Amino acid sequence: MPDWDGRGLPPVARARVDRFASSGLHTSLLSVPAAVGAEVVGFTAVGEVMGCIVERLGWAPVYGMTPNQQVGLYADALRQGYGVALDRLRLEAQAIGADGVLGITLSVTPLDETMQEFVALGTAVRADSKQRPGRVFTTELPGQDVGKLMQAGWVPADIVTGIAAHTTFDYNMQYQTTMWAGNMEVDAHTRLVTHVRADARNQFRRAVKATGADGAIVSRMTLNTWQLGEVGVAGVSSVFGTAIGRFHRGAAAPTSALTMLPLNRV
């Protein structure tokens, strides 16, 4: 296995790029509707691209660190995992001359009790025009949704995430969660999920703003909670989506902006 310092493309990704250059074979993970939808607005699939990283995610027994600070480190590790996987996917797409990556899936797979693999997988596409974007765009949206988006005057920019983690402690929880408590609200859990969801959405909003985009489309939200003894609860909330920018205002983009005739006019 070749040595690699963690910068640039991994050797296996470089080998995929070399095979692509020598064979000229175009591969795709897009479904037929997704591929057709992308072609309607001038994108041709050029190849599958991937980025991955294996991280150790565990509790660091640091003296004086609060439980809230510990789960904050956990959230930082999640941000880094998704971010590095997407950066490596983008590098591979750039290496094969792509302008963007569609239909990206982000996944996390546990490898053992502490290590997890973050994977970003998608289909790189190239625009059928002389104008090239300055940066490879990324989106979880499938090709048909990107086509509809562009016909409405919007373009995808980047996948953005908002990830937040918090803890809450309440001595009433030990009485509210017993088998004799009946059907009742657990105050600590309500406060936690409300707070952590709101924080994740705020971080998502700031991430969209940092891209310079005009808006975003949320694709999914996640929430994981676990108890800390009898009186505490911790939670991590995530928001995933695509930042989008407007290039035309109006009911529909002008046909001159598209390289192929929209399906609704065929």
Describe the protein.
- The chain starts with 10 loop residues before the first helix and ends in a 20-residue tail after the last strand.
- The C terminus is likely disordered.
- It has 6 helices and 7 strands; from the N terminus they run ααβαβββαβααββ.
- It has 266 residues and is α+β, with helices and mostly antiparallel strands.
- A 4-stranded mixed sheet has the order 1-3-2-4.
| Shape, per Cα inertia axes | globular
Query: Could you name the ranges where pLDDT drops below 50 across 5 or more consecutive residues?
Result: 255-266
Q: Write down how many β-strands occur, each being a DSSP E stretch of 2 or more residues.
A: 7
Strand order of the largest sheet: 1-3-2-4
Determine the oligomeric state from the structure: single chain
Give the CA-CA distance, first to last residue.
52 Å
Structural class: alpha+beta
Number of helices, counting only DSSP H or I runs of 4 residues or more? 6
Helix content: 25-40%
Spatial extent as radius of gyration: 22 Å
Tell me what portion of residues adopts beta-strand conformation: 25-35%
Secondary-structure element series: HHEHEEEHEHHEE
Rounded mean pLDDT is 85
Q: How many strands, what sense, and barrel or not for the largest sheet?
A: 4 strands, mixed
